[in-house]
Amino acid sequence: PETHPGPEPAPGPETHPGPEPAPGPDPHPAAAADPAPAVTADAEPFERSPSPQLPAPAAEGPVAGAIAFAGEAAVVLALCLLPRGAPAAVDQRAAAAHDLRNPAYAVRYAHAHAVSVLRQAADLGLERGEAAGFRPRLLAHPREQALLGTMSWLPERVAGAARRGQPYVLARYLTELAGAYLDCHQHCPAVWPGAVRPGGPVPAAAVIPARLWLTAAARTALAAGLGLLGVTAESRL
After folding, report:
1. What is the rounded end-to-end Cα distance, in angstroms, of the chain?
2. Which of its termini does the chain have fewer beta carbons within 10 Å around, N or C?
3. Measured between alpha carbons, how far is residue 35 from residues 32, 38, 39, 48 in Å?
4. Which residues contact 173 (CB under 8 A, 6 or more apart)?
């Protein structure tokens, strides 16, 4: 037999979803950089790597005491004058003495003297002129010849001191050179009182340029020797 569906049920009351619940904490939070710790007055100081242990300064010895008393240049030159193998002992009072009998002073003084002579000549308007005009035949005095001869040994003395490893060979040569220069200046000065007159140089002053060249050569030789020994060639003492 034909069947007929029953009546449809009446719809129930309309329902509305409630608010969505707040999301909970992420069970796998992303890694974040740790913030820098705040520094407070009672915070523990940062640990630092220990500083390297420096060697204790050496106790002051006789050479250091001599340098403090007489100056480095005087003591270094005095040490260079000692023969090889001699103990490094320096009489600080002798090294500091401004006496031409003190070789450590005489060499430095001779260089400063030559610089002073050239400076004085420049102040007086005296010039050496061009090197091409140098007339060595005017340097005929025995003291001038002796100085020229002493200077000619400079290359040999430098080579010998280096070859033997004996600085005193060069140091002692410099004392000879200083003596030859000072002796030459005493008898054959490059500039002397009356060498220049208001009207111009006197006739005898024709030798002045040659003697100025000789003085400049002595200054250069002394400065070169002192420099090789590690001594400053001072222009004033």
Report:
1. 147
2. N
3. 9, 9, 12, 21
4. 153, 154, 157, 225
Distance CA 171, CA 78 (A): 9
- Give the integer Cα–Cα distance in Å for 220 and 237: 17
Gap between the Cα atoms of 186 and 188, Å rounded:
6
**Alpha helices (H) along 52-166:** 62-70, 72-80, 92-96, 103-123, 142-151, 154-164
Give how far Cα 123 sits from Cα of 91, 117, 118, 136, Å.
39, 10, 9, 24
d(CA 159, CA 166): 10
Q: Which amino acid is at 87?
A: P
Name the token pair of 86: 């001699």
The band of 124, judged by pLDDT with boundaries at 50, 70 and 90, is confident
Pair 147, 141: CB distance under 8 Å: no
Q: Is the pTM above the cut of 0.70?
A: no
The Cα-based distances of 90 to 46, 74, 80 in angstroms read: 52, 10, 11
pLDDT of 177: 98
What torsion do the CA atoms of 163, 111, 125, 130 make, to the nearest 10 degrees?
-10
Of 102, 235, 75, which Cα lies nearest the Cα of 175? 102
Residue 235's CB is within 10 A of a number of other CB atoms, namely: 14
Which residue type, as a one-letter code, is found at position 16? H
Ramachandran region of residue 213, left (φ > 0), alpha (ψ -120 to 50) or beta?
alpha
